């Protein structure tokens, strides 16, 4: 009897592996990608819109620099103030389609779960959880709770998992204790729930035994999050992707319903060939030993920043990832405006001010928008003269940002503000965490590629439609 049971288990395991292998060897998967929308009427005040974006971007940066702490923002999360991009994924049998924020700065995939999902302080939905699309476990025949001794449980509880499995004896084969609840902290809030094993449906292809979080309670986060980071539970890692790419629509702040594409590539689709017109820079090895909480991030080697062709003299220890795990640059789809450490920002902003001395500073707008520097442009049809901002990466890749990717007009006024946020860190040294976080506002209208197989980050400027 034991032998028969063992054979059945092996057969089931082989069938699961064959199903996943079938997905991995298939053609690329294309998923619509669009800006995130909420139901509340947005603010019509252009200064307030930018202030909300700046505030949430800075809150996000604080979280990335210190993932073990929640930094709640007091601003309301209007549609324009989040600045995220969403994908719709289908889980269960039959499939249930749920919207997720695509986030390269985290790894777990989780959705609002059950009819009793609670979202506190979700002002955009008037605290009404009925407006939030949630997954219903009772409607799926393929859902299972993940056990405490399942390897996937250790993905979210790490080495601490054994101390949490108190009802299980070591090497027990009959342990029925489920994986302990998770609590995840994000820059904008937190979420808590249980880990499930469920079937992910991608364009008609089934991926069984996908580990996904079933969140019962969230604070400030109304929508599920699809982690695309470098950790084990992320969507790219669970699917064994060789690379993924996206092209981000321009931030119009008008609740456009247009979408572009998120493309998932299987192990045999990309090879070592480069995508036409794409510049590449290698990923930098994560500081796993010193800062294991940063292992999920995509570090890139930003070597210098130029303003109007002039190199900004940034101390090397800010740009390089130090042996202590601090400094360096990460790419994050979940951040809106790019973040720069105080010392870096001062140097970049100062050089911009020197080259834009012919325009008057709009100090009143700076105070109300939360951004600086802001400049009053001429009211006539005189040609606008603003310096080019460029990022230069290891390997020779250069990102020459279009003006709309680092300066934003305030409503219909003739005022522009630099769309980069900073902290009040001591300019004498590097603070904890990455020194620069490249946000999605600076990535808009770029084809962006995460080549996981060849450990490189690629980009090319193009119009995302």
Automatic annotation (TrEMBL):
<dbReference type="GO" id="GO:0006508">
    <property type="term" value="P:proteolysis"/>
</dbReference>
<dbReference type="InterPro" id="IPR033121">
    <property type="entry name" value="PEPTIDASE_A1"/>
</dbReference>
<keyword id="KW-0325">Glycoprotein</keyword>
<feature type="domain" description="Peptidase A1">
    <location>
        <begin position="85"/>
        <end position="460"/>
    </location>
</feature>
<dbReference type="InterPro" id="IPR032861">
    <property type="entry name" value="TAXi_N"/>
</dbReference>
<feature type="signal peptide">
    <location>
        <begin position="1"/>
        <end position="26"/>
    </location>
</feature>
<keyword id="KW-0732">Signal</keyword>
<dbReference type="GO" id="GO:0005576">
    <property type="term" value="C:extracellular region"/>
</dbReference>
<dbReference type="InterPro" id="IPR021109">
    <property type="entry name" value="Peptidase_aspartic_dom_sf"/>
</dbReference>
<dbReference type="InterPro" id="IPR034161">
    <property type="entry name" value="Pepsin-like_plant"/>
</dbReference>
<dbReference type="InterPro" id="IPR032799">
    <property type="entry name" value="TAXi_C"/>
</dbReference>
<comment type="similarity">
    <text>Belongs to the peptidase A1 family.</text>
</comment>
<dbReference type="InterPro" id="IPR001461">
    <property type="entry name" value="Aspartic_peptidase_A1"/>
</dbReference>
<protein>
    <submittedName>
        <fullName>Peptidase A1</fullName>
    </submittedName>
</protein>
<feature type="active site">
    <location>
        <position position="332"/>
    </location>
</feature>
<keyword id="KW-0645">Protease</keyword>
<dbReference type="Pfam" id="PF14543">
    <property type="entry name" value="TAXi_N"/>
</dbReference>
<keyword id="KW-0378">Hydrolase</keyword>
<keyword id="KW-0064">Aspartyl protease</keyword>
<feature type="active site">
    <location>
        <position position="103"/>
    </location>
</feature>
<dbReference type="InterPro" id="IPR051708">
    <property type="entry name" value="Plant_Aspart_Prot_A1"/>
</dbReference>
<dbReference type="GO" id="GO:0004190">
    <property type="term" value="F:aspartic-type endopeptidase activity"/>
</dbReference>
<dbReference type="Pfam" id="PF14541">
    <property type="entry name" value="TAXi_C"/>
</dbReference>
């Amino acid at each position: 009897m034991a032998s028969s049971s063992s054979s059945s288990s092996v057969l089931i395991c082989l069938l699961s592996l064959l199903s996943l292998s079938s997905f991995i060897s298939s053609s690329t998967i294309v998923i619509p990608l669009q800006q995130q929308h909420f139901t509340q009427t947005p603010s019509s005040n252009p200064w307030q819109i930018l202030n909300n974006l700046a505030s949430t971007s800075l809150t996000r940066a604080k979280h990335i620099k210190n993932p073990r702490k929640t930094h709640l923002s007091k601003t309301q999360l209007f549609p324009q103030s989040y600045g995220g991009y969403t994908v719709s994924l289908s889980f269960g049998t039959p499939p249930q389609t749920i919207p997720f924020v695509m986030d390269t700065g985290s790894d777990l995939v989780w959705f609002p779960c059950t009819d009793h999902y609670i979202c506190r302080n979700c002002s955009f939905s008037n605290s009404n959880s009925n407006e939030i699309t949630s997954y219903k476990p009772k409607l799926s025949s393929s859902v299972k709770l993940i056990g405490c001794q399942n390897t996937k449980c250790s993905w979210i509880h790490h080495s601490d998992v054994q101390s949490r499995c108190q009802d299980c004896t070591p090497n027990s084969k009959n342990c029925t204790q489920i994986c302990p609840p998770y609590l995840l902290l994000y820059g904008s809030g937190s979420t808590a729930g249980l880990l499930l094993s469920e079937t992910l449906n991608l364009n008609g292809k089934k991926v069984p035994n996908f580990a996904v979080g079933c969140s019962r309670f969230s604070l400030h986060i109304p929508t599920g999050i699809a982690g695309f980071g470098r950790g084990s539970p992320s969507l790219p890692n669970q699917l064994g992707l060789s690379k993924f790419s996206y092209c981000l629509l321009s931030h119009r702040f008008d609740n456009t319903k247009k979408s572009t594409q998120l493309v998932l590539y299987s192990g045999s689709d990309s090879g070592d060939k480069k995508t036409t017109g794409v510049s590449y820079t290698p990923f930098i090895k994560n500081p796993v030993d010193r800062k294991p909480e940063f292992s999920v991030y995509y570090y890139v080697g930003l070597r210098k920043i130029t303003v109007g062709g002039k190199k900004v003299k940034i101390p090397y220890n800010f740009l390089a990832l130090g042996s202590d795990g601090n400094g360096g640059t990460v790419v994050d789809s979940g951040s809106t405006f790019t973040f720069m450490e105080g010392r870096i920002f001062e140097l970049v902003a100062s050089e911009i001010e020197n080259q834009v001395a012919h325009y008057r500073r709009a100090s009143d707008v700076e105070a109300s928008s939360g951004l600086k520097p802001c400049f009053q442009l001429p009211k006539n049809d005189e040609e606008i003269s603003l310096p080019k901002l460029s990022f230069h990466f290891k390997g020779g890749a250069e990102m020459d940002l279009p003006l709309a990717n680092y300066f934003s007009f305030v409503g219909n006024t003739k005022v522009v503000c630099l769309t980069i946020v900073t902290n009040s860190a001591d300019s004498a040294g590097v603070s904890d965490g990455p020194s620069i976080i490249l946000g999605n506002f600076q990535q808009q209208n770029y084809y962006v590629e995460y080549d996981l197989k060849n450990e490189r980050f690629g980009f090319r400027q193009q119009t995302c439609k």
